[in-house]
Amino acid sequence: MSLEQDDQVIRLLDNKSIKKHKKDYNFIHFASDSVHELAFLQCLSGHSQPSHPISAVLYTPDNSSYSSVLESYIRNLRFNTPATPKLCLIITATHESHKQAAVICSKKHGLEIKIQSGDHDYEGMSYVSDAPFVILDMFNLRSISVDIEDESAWVQAGATIGEIYYRIAEKSKTHVFPSGTFVTVGAGGHFSGGRKEKMKQVDLQ
Ligand SMILES: Cc1cc2nc3c(=O)[nH]c(=O)nc-3n(C[C@H](O)[C@H](O)[C@H](O)COP(=O)(O)OP(=O)(O)OC[C@H]3O[C@@H](n4cnc5c(N)ncnc54)[C@H](O)[C@@H]3O)c2cc1C
């Protein structure tokens, strides 16, 4: 479904259809009107693969487990107060198309994206904002493929640096990846610049 088709579908929806979609998606309340909210959800659905429905990995305030899931993202309890602006939606991506849909649709609908990989953020960068935002959780995307011949590795953002060390050690006793000492730090936040230590080498040595 294209963006234009998304818009077309929205225009054709009557009140009954909107009610049904609200139920299907555990409707959320972040936009100025319900048609805009529904358009965002339809956009997400239209840009993810039908074989991996994104509705199965969405958490909204209407989910019974929403509060506990949200609190698990707030690593620094200083930000877990009633005064802290809250997000509108959590996407726990399990497929590449979920990330793509999150980026395309958030941009289209003017929402910020906060990405979490290893959940080591104590500064609130990935779970606090004054503007409406979605959390894109990369935790489930954590595959690691090490090619010792080529001395390289492909790592998904949700993998921890400890898992990377482990997979390299499985293949070689002489190669290492210099990252950090805290093995639960995520590759996503670490590689994108959050690390404390200057990474001396980016390829396996
Ligand atoms: C207890 C603790 C121990 C640490 N130990 C070490 C250490 O030993 N060595 C070291 O070098 N550093 C260390 N750090 C710093 C750590 O590398 C950074 O905090 C890093 O950003 C954590 O990444 P994360 O994926 O675990 O965290 P997250 O909470 O997932 O993300 C941290 C930041 O990176 C952004 N981000 C996450 N994933 C992505 C992505 N895929 N694309 C773009 N942006 C993304 C988030 O939005 C957020 O701003 C430590 C931090 C803590 C709190």
TrEMBL record:
<dbReference type="InterPro" id="IPR016169">
    <property type="entry name" value="FAD-bd_PCMH_sub2"/>
</dbReference>
<protein>
    <recommendedName>
        <fullName>FAD-binding PCMH-type domain-containing protein</fullName>
    </recommendedName>
</protein>
<dbReference type="InterPro" id="IPR036318">
    <property type="entry name" value="FAD-bd_PCMH-like_sf"/>
</dbReference>
<feature type="domain" description="FAD-binding PCMH-type">
    <location>
        <begin position="81"/>
        <end position="205"/>
    </location>
</feature>
<dbReference type="InterPro" id="IPR016166">
    <property type="entry name" value="FAD-bd_PCMH"/>
</dbReference>
<dbReference type="InterPro" id="IPR016167">
    <property type="entry name" value="FAD-bd_PCMH_sub1"/>
</dbReference>
<dbReference type="InterPro" id="IPR006094">
    <property type="entry name" value="Oxid_FAD_bind_N"/>
</dbReference>
<dbReference type="Pfam" id="PF01565">
    <property type="entry name" value="FAD_binding_4"/>
</dbReference>
